[in-house]
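Good morning,

Attaching, inline, the backbone tokens for the sequence recovery test we're adding to the shared suite. The designed sequence is right after.
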């Protein structure tokens, strides 16, 4: 089958091959025919080493498709079911899933899936990015690594739910818990940032400020629900105009740059919430004074996978889409084939206003 492979960390291009096979299924696995997969900035982050990913690996982590085969222990799913791939599934039984109500932080299934090879090529085993590997025509996932959806939902739309939309919208709704009538600033107006803007709009924020260095992204952010859109150099004026200089009730950093994380914290009012959504490098640090942490009483919180319980939140977002409150169709601005993956990744690196979905 076709698949796009990262041979070594630091590669600029993926190698598209047609001789890749799936490894053997286990009794708790499902085999999926991938129909659509999003091209996400996290794929670039895996290539450049920001997100640790052992090579060689088939990249891609945001996909949807149709189940072709199920393992002998799987009775809740069947061939023909339409599903969304879950790159960080929960086990449903541990303290994070049942006691702490934080299933997105469950390590049991996710870590095992990430450590397992999913593909084989000419006798060499290949990993799948983040335990998935959706840049392939077929994929094996653990039974917990898919969410069944209604067959009338377009699979291109469904594929976006698997990461970018859930991460951004979930950060606003679940992690930061944006409140009605509040002021919000979102740093980065890419796919995750636009989803965070939509989440803040759904939550009832009164003012939503998008910040990006690309003017074209700012225009688009307005169309998705931002009330203001500014370049970084104009942010201070926007803060003074909207908040009287106090700072925003909520700030969401959706880029993953330490300096921008620090700016997001500074733009948050005393007692407000600063939510870090973007993925930074392990070795990079953000500094705070010991006094300001005490004095400002701000909540500084990370957001992993949008604080989601995929078993329920995927369906909530799809209901919001069906009711017209969450715009997903317009988030797909380019449909490509797997052979076009490298130009697509270059567009992501360049920060272009394009959200791309591979169609198999």
């Amino acid at each position: 089958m076709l698949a796009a492979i990262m041979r070594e960390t630091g590669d600029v291009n993926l190698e598209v091959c047609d001789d890749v096979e799936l490894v053997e299924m286990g009794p708790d696995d499902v085999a999926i025919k991938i129909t659509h997969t999003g091209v996400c900035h996290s794929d670039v982050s895996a290539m450049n080493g920001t997100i640790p990913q052992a090579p060689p690996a088939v990249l891609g982590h945001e996909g949807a498709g149709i189940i072709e085969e199920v393992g002998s222990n799987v009775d809740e799913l069947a061939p023909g079911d339409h599903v969304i791939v879950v790159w960080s599934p929960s086990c449903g039984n541990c303290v994070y899933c049942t006691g702490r109500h934080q299933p997105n932080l469950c390590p049991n299934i996710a870590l095992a899936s990430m450590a397992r090879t999913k593909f084989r090529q000419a006798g060499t085993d290949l990993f799948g990015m983040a335990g998935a590997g959706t840049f392939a025509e077929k994929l094996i996932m653990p039974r917990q690594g898919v969410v069944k959806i209604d067959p009338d939902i377009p699979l291109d739309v469904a594929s976006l739910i698997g990461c970018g939309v859930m991460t951004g919208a979930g950060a606003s709704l679940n992690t930061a818990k944006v409140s009605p009538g509040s002021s919000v600033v979102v740093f980065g107006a890419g796919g995750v940032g636009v989803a965070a803007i939509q989440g803040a709009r759904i939550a009832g924020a009164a003012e939503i400020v998008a910040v990006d260095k690309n003017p074209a992204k700012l225009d688009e952010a307005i169309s998705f629900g931002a009330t203001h859109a500014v370049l970084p150099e104009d942010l201070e004026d926007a803060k003074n105009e909207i908040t009287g200089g106090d700072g925003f009730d909520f700030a969401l950093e959706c880029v993953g740059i330490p300096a921008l994380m620090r700016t997001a914290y500074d733009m948050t009012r005393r007692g407000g919430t600063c939510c870090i959504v973007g993925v930074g490098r392990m070795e990079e640090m953000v500094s705070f004074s010991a006094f300001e942490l005490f004095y400002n009483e701000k909540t500084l919180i990370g957001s992993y996978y949008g604080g989601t319980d995929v078993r329920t939140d995927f369906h909530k977002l799809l209901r919001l889409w069906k009711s017209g409150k969450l715009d997903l169709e317009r988030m797909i601005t380019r449909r490509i084939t797997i052979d076009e993956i490298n130009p697509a990744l270059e567009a992501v690196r360049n920060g272009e206003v394009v959200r791309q979905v591979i169609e198999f």
